[in-house]
Design a protein that fits this description.
Elements lengths: L1 H14 L3 H16 L4 H18 L7 H11 L5 H18 L7 H11 L5 H20 L5 H11 L5 H16 L9 H11 L5 H20 L6 H11 L5 H18 L7 H8 L10 H16 L15 E2 L44 E2 L3 H13 L5 H17 L1 H4 L3 H10 L6 H16 L53 H14 L1 H18 L2 H12 L5 H17 L4 H9 L3 H14 L3 H10 L3 H10 L7 H14 L5 H6 L7 H13 L4 H11 L29 H34 L1
Antiparallel strand pairs: 1-2
């Protein structure tokens, strides 16, 4: 009855255009009833306000503020029945006003977001009806104030209540579906919150959020030129590291699309992206999807680094987006820019807080943040807990950067060098191979010769080349081009890091004997493929000549000799040494010989390889003055086995020419006399029994010179001086053994006492 009477009264005031009386009625209903302390009065007031709105009809829009405010106040009433009546009253008010309520949308949305989490099912049901009505109005209208709404949405999106989250996502889906509302422009404001909702415990909410994010990604692919990629990059970096698999996979998929669509716009965020992506590359099959997407991200990001990045001055120059192509299509004048801070500069606790963004600008600066990238790569190499595939990816990145931006990368070489050397001790052969590729590139890159980028360790400075008794110095040879510098290693070849690398590699072998035993040959053989084999052997021999640890020097020489004689990678070098026809080959022989003197048997094998049979015989004659140990005899045994290998086929064939190779036969008999009655003795003895009688091997025409003539010495080599050097080195080894034996005896005495 009250409602009917009120309806007639208001209709009369409307007919009379009596605005003051209408406001007076609304004020009485609000102040004296809806906001009364008595529950029944509040209920009556809510019914009266709804009736008043219905009576006003299309004119209710003039009084919406006065009608809505008291109803919204009742949303907070302790009595669930009153909250329900308030919801019903607001439904009637909105239904009558329709589009006129849009200026008040924020307060309505705020009130509804609270009712969405109401514990009373009737209230919740009523709020859902009101929510659907409001969505219909927004969908129909073209006057929705999105700019005014975004701050409220950004605030509410961080709610932890499931119903509130569901309410928020439903509204985002509605707004996204309205053609006249461009929510994509404001995606940076809500993206972080969306990813947090994606981690909700409710499967339904997660699914809704997935759908919302999927719709946004579709729109991004359709309109990449209008997307603010830079403002969302760091948000994705954070969520690519989430513990929740769904969040991480979704963020990684977004990152993949961003890199492919935005191209070099993503370069300033490379360090953060790598921090997020690299660990994922070592995931097992349980996270196979994440691993695969992360791998695509990594490869796509790597392709963005170009040689031009090495030519730009990081402090002054930058590339504008208009000059840069993307992998999918060109982007023109993006509307937003973001500072290129890496993940390390972000507060991860920001996951629970709204993120703020910088103002947009018409042009975006695209600069490769090389320092940040190198810092991330270095950090991952130092982390012993990371997986093999991550370590391989890090080394691929370093190699790629040295190829594309060598000048800038050499500024970081001194800091990277130690960890690259330590990585040679990795358990994985694949990691070691990639590590050697990086080290080889450092050692051979022309950028390494630039002034001011040389090795900083003064102790590693290369000593002067050894004076050799040969007519031409390799340092006098002219060459052109970077790779042609490799013709002889008697001067600092490759670049200033090459010799430093060789020194530190030998130091590592010396300190880690297990590395030398298990991986030494593998590492050196790979280096011979990646770099110039002659350079490697020449430099190592030069360094070992000055090695104070004589036992290590002997072991290292034995390892190098075995590689030289048996590795297919060194076929060309063996052929070069076999004839000693050139000054370079004689130079190399003399250098190797001086270091090979640390190990008597390897010295003889070098003479066999170079066909210096007379000198080999002279050396074996000196063996009588040496201390013959079990190790010594074992090495002689191994040399006999080597003589039977394909490497020394030419040597065995020369045994047919007894007349021209007497010292070869004498040298082999000398080895036979050194050996005890063993299998090696029997093997060599049988071989020498096959040597033919010289008289039987004579040709019918004895006047012609023999075509099988072999030299006994190489020209321009002072063999006497080499023999003296051999004796000098062996005397040092004898003194060192005596000293070790003396120390061991003193230690035994102390133990007895």
């Amino acid at each position: 009855v009250l409602s009917s009477s009120l309806h007639r009264l208001v209709r009369e005031f409307v007919a009379q255009n009596n605005t003051s009386q209408i406001k007076h009625v609304i004020q009485i209903l609000s102040q004296e009833f809806a906001l009364s302390q008595h529950p029944h009065s509040r209920k009556g007031g809510l019914i009266g306000l709804a009736a008043c709105s219905i009576a006003l009809g299309k004119d209710s829009g003039l009084y919406l503020k006065e009608l809505i405010e008291p109803v919204l106040t009742c949303f907070n009433d302790a009595d669930s029945r009153l909250r329900y009546y308030a919801c019903e009253a607001l439904y009637n008010i909105v239904k009558v006003a329709r589009g006129s309520v849009l200026p008040h949308f924020n307060v309505l949305f705020d009130g509804l977001s609270k009712l969405a989490a109401d514990p009373d099912p009737n209230v919740k049901s009523g709020s859902e009806l009101l929510d659907r009505l409001l969505k219909d109005i927004v969908t129909e209208s073209n006057q929705f104030d999105l700019v005014g709404f975004i701050p409220l949405l950004r605030e509410r999106i961080y709610s932890n209540n499931q119903y509130a989250r569901q309410f928020i996502i439903s509204w985002i889906l509605v707004l996204e579906s309205v053609p006249d509302i461009n929510l994509l422009d404001y995606l940076p404001e809500i993206l972080d919150g969306l990813f947090q909702i994606l981690g909700d415990n409710s499967k339904e909410i997660r699914k809704m959020c997935e759908v919302a994010l999927g719709e946004f990604l579709k729109e991004i692919k359709k309109n990449p030129s209008s997307v603010k990629f830079a403002e969302m990059a760091n948000i994705l970096v954070i969520h690519c590291q989430a513990a929740d698999d769904l969040i991480q996979l979704t963020a990684m998929c977004w990152m993949r699309e961003f890199i492919q669509l935005a191209g070099r716009v993503m370069l300033p965020y490379s360090s953060g992206i790598l921090t997020a992506v690299l660990p994922c590359l070592s995931y097992d099959d349980r996270k196979k999807n994440i691993k695969e997407v992360a791998n695509v991200c990594n490869q796509s990001l790597m392709k963005l680094v170009i040689p031009e990045d090495d030519e730009m001055d990081e402090a002054k120059q930058s590339l504008t987006l208009s000059a840069e192509p993307t992998s999918e299509e060109s982007l023109s004048k993006p509307e937003a820019a973001s500072s290129g801070e890496s993940l390390s500069e972000l507060d991860v606790t920001a996951l629970n807080q709204p993120l703020s963004f910088p103002c947009s600008s018409e042009r975006i600066q695209v600069t490769l943040n090389l320092d940040g990238i190198v810092q991330v790569l270095d950090c991952h190499l130092h982390d012993t807990s990371i997986g093999m595939m991550t370590r391989i990816a890090v080394l691929k990145w370093l190699y790629h950067l040295y190829i594309k931006t060598p000048r800038k990368m050499f500024r970081h070489t001194d800091s990277l060098f130690p960890i690259l050397l330590r990585t040679l001790s990795d358990e994985s052969d694949e990691v070691i191979l990639k590590d050697l590729e990086v080290l080889a590139e450092i050692a051979s890159s022309p950028a390494g010769q630039t002034e001011g980028h040389g090795p900083s360790d003064s102790s590693d400075a290369r000593p002067g080349p050894v004076e050799l008794h040969i007519p031409a110095r390799a340092s006098q040879l002219s060459s052109s081009g970077t790779k042609s510098l490799e013709c002889s290693p008697s001067t600092p070849t490759m670049n200033s890091y090459f010799y430093k690398f060789m020194i530190n590699l030998l130091k590592r072998f010396s300190s880690e004997r297990k590395l030398l035993e298990t991986r030494g040959a593998f590492i050196i053989r790979q280096l011979c493929l990646l770099l110039n084999a002659e350079n490697i052997f020449h430099s190592m021999a030069d360094i070992l000549l000055r090695e104070e640890d004589l036992k290590f020097a002997s072991t290292m020489v034995h390892t190098l000799n075995t590689i030289l004689l048996t590795s297919s990678e060194l076929f060309q070098l063996r052929n070069q040494l076999k004839d000693l026809k050139t000054p370079e080959s004689r130079n190399l022989f003399c250098c190797l010989y001086r270091s090979w003197c640390h190990n008597p048997v390897t010295t003889v094998s070098l003479c066999f390889l170079t066909q210096n049979y007379k000198h080999a015989y002279d050396l074996i004659q000196k063996f009588g003055d040496l201390e013959v140990t079990v190790d010594f005899l074992t090495e002689v045994d191994k040399l006999v086995q080597l003589i039977e290998c394909p490497i020394f086929t030419y040597l065995r064939l020369q045994l047919l020419d007894v007349k021209n190779n007497p010292y070869l036969i004498k040298a082999l008999y000398g080895l036979l006399m050194l050996l005890p009655q063993s299998s090696a003795f029997q093997l060599l003895s049988h071989r020498l029994q096959c040597v033919p009688n010289p008289e039987l091997m004579q040709t019918t025409d004895s006047t012609k010179p023999s075509t099988g003539y072999r030299r006994t010495t190489a020209p321009n080599i002072d063999y006497t001086e080499l023999l003296q050097h051999f004796e000098k080195v062996q005397n040092k080894h004898l003194e060192a053994r005596h000293q070790r034996a003396g120390r061991a005896e003193q230690l035994d005495r102390r133990v007895v006492l």
